[in-house]
Amino acid sequence: MLKPLAIIAALAPAAAQATCGPHRDVAERLTQEWGEQVIAAGVYEHSQTGRLMMVEVWAAESGSFTIISRNAEGTACMIVSGQMLTITPLKTGEEG
């Protein structure tokens, strides 16, 4: 399945075929075309710029998933997408 390429082609201008675009456009595409929704998010510090960024994990009941990174300006970049996502519950101290 060429899902990442479909999103890239729809979001990126012809002159700059990047894996980035406005977050609202990426979110709309993931929701409407792939049935994905955010299932996890977190903040991290970008290793080269030192800026705080957000990472989002999107997934659908079908098992498809997409991981994106977004900056404070609202640009989202796809990191990876795939199939057969399995979610493993966190173990508590009592379970370990």
Please describe what this structure looks like.
The longest helix has 12 residues, at 23-34. This protein is α+β, with helices and mostly antiparallel strands and 96 residues long. The chain has two helices and five strands; from the N terminus they run αβαββββ. It has one domain (3-12, 20-82). It is flat, with a radius of gyration of 15 Å. A hairpin with a 6-residue loop joins β2 (37-45) and β3. The model is unreliable at 1-18 (pLDDT under 50). Helix content is 22%, strand content 35%. The chain has helices spanning 3-11, 23-34, and strands spanning 20-22, 37-45, 52-59, 65-70, 75-82. It starts with a helix and ends in a 14-residue tail after the last strand. The protein has a five-stranded antiparallel β-sheet.
What's the SSE blueprint?
Blueprint: H1 3-11, E1 20-22, H2 23-34, E2 37-45, E3 52-59, E4 65-70, E5 75-82
Antiparallel strand pairs: 1-5, 2-3, 3-4, 4-5
Average pLDDT across residues?
Answer: 81
Share of helix, binned? 10-25%
Strand order of the largest sheet: 1-5-4-3-2
Q: Shape from CA axes?
A: flat
**What percentage of the residues does DSSP assign to strands (E)?**
35-45%
Structural class: alpha+beta
How many β-strand runs? 5
